[in-house]
Amino acid sequence: MRMYDVIYKKRQGMVLNKEEIEFFVTGYTNGTIPDYQASALMMAIYFNKMSKEETFYLTDAMMRSGDQIDLSQIEGIKVDKHSTGGVGDTTTLIVGPLVAACGVPVAKMSGRGLGHTGGTIDKLESIKGFHVEISNEEFLRNVNQIKLAVIGQSGDLAPADKKLYALRDVTATVDNISLIASSIMSKKLAAGANAILLDVKVGSGAFMKDFDSAVSLAMEMVEIGKAMGRETIAVLTDMDQPLGYAVGNSLEVQEAIEVLNNRGPEDLRTLCVKLASYMVLLAKKANTLAEAEATVIEMLDSGAALKKFKAFIQAQGGDLTAIDHPQQLPKARYKRNVVASVNGYIQSIKADDIGVAALSLGAGRETKDSTIDLAAGVMMYKKVGDLIKRGDVIAELHANNESKLDVANTTITNAITYSDRKVEKLKLIKAVVTDKGIQPL
């Protein structure tokens, strides 16, 4: 088989078979197929799309390109959660303990952040002593005993995807539904969970900017999950404004602790309860979503989820003092309020610009090798639909470099538009996609 023939076939709009896709993935992973030929195939796929069968074969081949995690030693149905990324997306820190408190094992593999999208590991490392460098045996033991553990993503997990994504990133072939779906699902499937919950973000701060594109991506991933024998549910959630108030590592940890104490922003709490309820349902710990939600709320109200969070942090070396006294988490030397210069209702907030502002303050990574300032970030105190008066505090900037405050202040000010007329609040959860179809909410 020649790579030239595979490229030509796809360029002509024809459907690649399983053997041709496996030939490409294997060859590109081991280095026998060069970047320029892989780039040509990615561009042909970008323009001519992929069939459902092709997408499945690509996902399967990438999943099998490296290690596949064996979670069979963990008792119960293992449910994984994946978010497509957003601004202030603190859900894993809250959902994990909520679900674990319901008796569902959460064996979580998480990554570090790149750009303004924060990584779960970066956030957790705001807690003194916390580490993800634990042995496989310790990881499995913690999940069996505590029901929750987090480790870093293995470099050998779906290595074909890692290589292909880097190539797509520099050849303008990232935004193709089939390529995105296969990228996400190959890693989730290789991570070994029995069922998968997908939080697909929609809006200005998300990768999928519009509802129709998000639905297409969700359906593709749910179909892949079903074809691979993994029950999969996708929840489409709003990202036309930051989730919660906090954008930044230690700030988000503090906010997660607030929610686990049954306080915190209403939107973040509501979404975490809903996501956790779907995970409990997928784990067969409830017969209906309403029953699952009642259990999740009980775990939050009773303090059981907070207790589970503490056990998880302690098991991985974290200092519990910061959980009881969040003011001991990393703090920025400088703070500045962003104030409104007009009267009116907030009409829109460019969520991605809020993320860029947090990044400019030091909360994210410009490159893989950048150093994160764990204390830096933004607290966004207002939401779309809020009535604002001139002089009201819209946001609070946190930085350890005073010179960075001016740029972030301008970015956030320009990210917000106002209206003289009343503006409707944004709908937090837009739809749910299962193998039975779309369920609008």
Automatic annotation (TrEMBL):
GO molecular function: 1,4-alpha-oligoglucan phosphorylase activity; thymidine phosphorylase activity
Pfam families cross-referenced by the UniProt entry: Glycos_trans_3N, Glycos_transf_3, PYNP_C
Superkingdom, natural source: Bacteria
Entry GO CC: cytosol
Keyword set, alphabetical order: Glycosyltransferase, Transferase
UniProt enzyme class: transferase
EC number(s) stated in the UniProt entry for this protein: 2.4.2.2
The keyword Flavoprotein is assigned to this record: no
Domain Pyrimidine nucleoside phosphorylase C-terminal: 345-419
Catalytic activity: thymidine + phosphate = 2-deoxy-alpha-D-ribose 1-phosphate + thymine; uridine + phosphate = alpha-D-ribose 1-phosphate + uracil; 2'-deoxyuridine + phosphate = 2-deoxy-alpha-D-ribose 1-phosphate + uracil
Key word Glycosyltransferase present: yes
Gene Ontology annotations of biological process type: pyrimidine nucleobase metabolic process; pyrimidine nucleoside metabolic process
Entry function: Catalyzes phosphorolysis of the pyrimidine nucleosides uridine, thymidine and 2'-deoxyuridine with the formation of the corresponding pyrimidine base and ribose-1-phosphate.
Subunit details: Homodimer.
Family statement: Belongs to the thymidine/pyrimidine-nucleoside phosphorylase family.
Name of the protein described by the UniProt record: Pyrimidine-nucleoside phosphorylase
Organism: Geosporobacter ferrireducens
Gene: deoA
